[in-house]
């Protein structure tokens, strides 16, 4: 059964159901930011952009289950900085796959990214293979073929997936940075030349890595 389309899902929800949130139509302000890594042209869909974002720094309140841990004060600030960097350096995000954990939901909220979201329980306790399967299914999740897809998840899956997808693995400068450390509020940017369904290990270009601080 396809997930319901909801007007709003609070960031603190811990429901395990996959769900989609689609924002109201806007005038396109987010599409007017400068792009430093990619040229914005009519041929943008000739390639795709994948962003792998680790959640921002979370707190450890007593008696709170791991799934429900909220962002720490530092994470609230750095989640917003991650959103600023994404808007300044990559094409506008068309769709988001997000873990159902509270800290990933709150990270996405803090980025200010305004795009359809699919919340997936499988991304909370994922493996790189499970995460890739959800990315492959993006056109089905959203009923469209997003040009730029953001995945908000956890370690060690974000770094492992970035390196596994990259054609050069850890041999490139960016790959070596990802392999060394993938802190909270970090984002890896990959350029995809295939369809989402056709994305497989060793088929993408790892073009950038940034830690929001």
Write the layout of secondary structure elements.
Elements: E1 5-6, E2 19-21, E3 48-54, H1 73-89, E4 95-99, H2 102-111, E5 117-120, H3 128-136, H4 138-142, E6 148-153, H5 157-165, H6 173-180, E7 186-192, E8 204-211
Parallel strand pairs: 1-2, 3-6, 4-5, 4-6
Antiparallel strand pairs: 2-5, 3-7, 7-8
Helix pairs in contact: 1-2, 3-5
Pfam families: His_Phos_1 (PF00300)
Region (Disordered): 1-25
InterPro entries: His_Pase_superF_clade-1 (IPR013078), His_PPase_superfam (IPR029033)
Task: Describe this protein's structure.
By secondary structure, this protein is an alpha/beta fold. The chain has one domain (46-211): 3-Layer(aba) Sandwich (Rossmann fold). The protein is built from 6 helices and 8 strands, in the order βββαβαβααβααββ. It has an 8-stranded mixed β-sheet, with helices on both faces. Residues 1-36 and 39-44 have low confidence and may be disordered. This is Phosphohistidine phosphatase.
Q: What proportion of the residues is helical, as a percent range?
A: 25-40%
CATH class: Alpha Beta
Task: List segments where confidence is low: pLDDT < 50 over at least 5 consecutive residues.
Answer: 1-36, 39-44
Enumerate the strands of the largest sheet in spatial order, edge to edge or round the barrel.
1-2-5-4-6-3-7-8
CATH topology-level name:
Rossmann fold
Order of helices and strands: EEEHEHEHHEHHEE
Overall 3D geometry?
A: globular
Structural class, please?
alpha/beta
Radius of gyration: 16 Å
Q: Tell me the domain tally.
A: 1
CATH H level, superfamily name: Phosphoglycerate mutase-like
Strand content: 15-25%
Protein name: Phosphohistidine phosphatase
Organism: Mycolicibacterium duvalii
Pfam families: His_Phos_1
Region (Disordered): 1-25
């Amino acid at each position: 059964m396809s997930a319901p389309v909801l007007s709003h899902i609070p960031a603190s929800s811990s429901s395990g159901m996959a769900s989609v949130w689609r924002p109201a139509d806007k005038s396109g302000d987010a599409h007017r930011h400068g792009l430093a890594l990619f040229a914005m042209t009519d041929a943008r869909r000739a390639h795709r952009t994948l962003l792998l974002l680790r959640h921002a720094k979370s707190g450890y309140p007593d008696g709170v289950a791991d799934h429900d841990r909220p962002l720490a004060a530092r994470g609230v600030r750095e989640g917003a900085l991650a959103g600023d960097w994404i808007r300044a350096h990559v094409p506008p995000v068309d769709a988001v796959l997000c873990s159902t954990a509270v800290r990933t939901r709150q990270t996405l909220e803090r980025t200010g990214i305004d795009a359809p979201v699919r919340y997936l329980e499988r991304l909370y306790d994922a493996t790189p293979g499970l995460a890739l399967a959800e990315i492959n299914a993006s056109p089905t999740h959203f009923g469209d073929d997003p040009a730029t897809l953001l995945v908000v998840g956890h370690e060690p899956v974000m770094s492992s997936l970035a390196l596994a997808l990259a054609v050069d693995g850890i041999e490139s400068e960016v790959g070596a940075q990802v392999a060394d450390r993938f802190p909270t509020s970090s984002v890896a940017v990959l350029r995809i030349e295939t369809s989402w369904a056709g994305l497989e290990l060793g088929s993408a270009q790892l073009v950038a890595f940034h830690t929001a601080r």
